What does this fold into?
Amino acid sequence: MTLDTDTPATPATPPSQARIALRSVRRSIAASARTGLASARRAGDRVAAFAEPVTGVVSPVGWLVLVAAVVALGLAWALGWIELAFVGATLLAALLLAVPFVFGRMRYRVEIELQPRRVVAGERALGRLVVHNVADATSVPSQLELPVGRGLAEFVIPSIPAGGQHEELFAVPTQRRAVITAGPAASVRGDQLGLLRREVRWTEPVELFVHPVTARLKPSAAGLVRDLEGEITKTITDNDISFHALRAYEPGDALRNVHWRTSARTGQLMVRQYEETRRSQLLLVQATNRAHYASDEEFELAVSVLASLGVQVIRDATRLATATDRLRLNTATPTALLDDTSRIAPVESGALPVRDVVREAAKRVPTPSVVIVVGGSIAPLAEFRAVETVFGSDTQILVFRAELGAASRITRVGESTVVTVGTLDELSRLVRRVRP
It folds into this structure.
């Protein structure tokens, strides 16, 4: 095909000035609209904040009644129905009659006491609510509400003389491991229909730790660390206690490592080399993916296994790091660890593979001697085997699988030891048989 290079190019049509002007006007209008909406939003927020002391006392039922009254009166005016006017007036009258019930001032000092503050799941815990009247006159009867976990306790507080106090006792449900929050305690004033409601908070929330049930393990939990403490590795280092060999001096070597007798005999500076001695570091990880557990009870068994192992390792004074998919646990003391195990919850979605969970936990600690992974019976064994790729050959991998009601056993899968725990009572016996 031949191109005609002599044909002149057609000049581009210049943009219409009217089109440019319209585009500029549209942009200006859009920018003005955005600015106006932002200003209106800020003004609305200021108005809402200013009116909050009034609008905040109207309950959802009260707002529903108010909307129904306005609609009824509007329809009555538009349609001329006297019945709708009567309905609207009755609803407005109910709101007006509720107003006096929210007035009144109370001067309380309220205390919440939980005894004890830490229990094992299934143990009994009691709470005590003490209301002090710090006013100069006798208080009027009132109602106090106290959220306890997912429930709500309601107390009718009688008249309290000036300087007096009133006490209420309540039970805290502790059937399951959890961190139960009691409070804040709030006094409530309002009408019997619940149209208006005014709350005054008197306390801050108080936490009750319901620890998991644990098994008592013997010291040197498991021989998990006992067999590895002081074990010589194949890593060569310049600083340790296990002598390995001598080598020629290199610039930068510490003079304290020079072996002077050999240097004098050979006429060349020689320095000591050592085999690195393993310093025990245990990493304890629980995979909390909900899909890996057959039931909630099996998940609780896994948490109990984690807590039992962790508590004993801390008592053995071995360095320990403990983590889950979303939580890094405090291992300063057994109590601190148990407090944090009370917060462990299953991950419903977006859970990482077991290998990634362990890898993330290992980033914050020295290379561990032993890695213990706790999981559920439905987790694929391949996920546990993949943990071996995170560490070198000097790190031992132990897997504790919670399988409620199954026969407890110890097997080898690849380079890992897999311990199946059917009941918590079997954990102590299984741990004594484990040899990394």
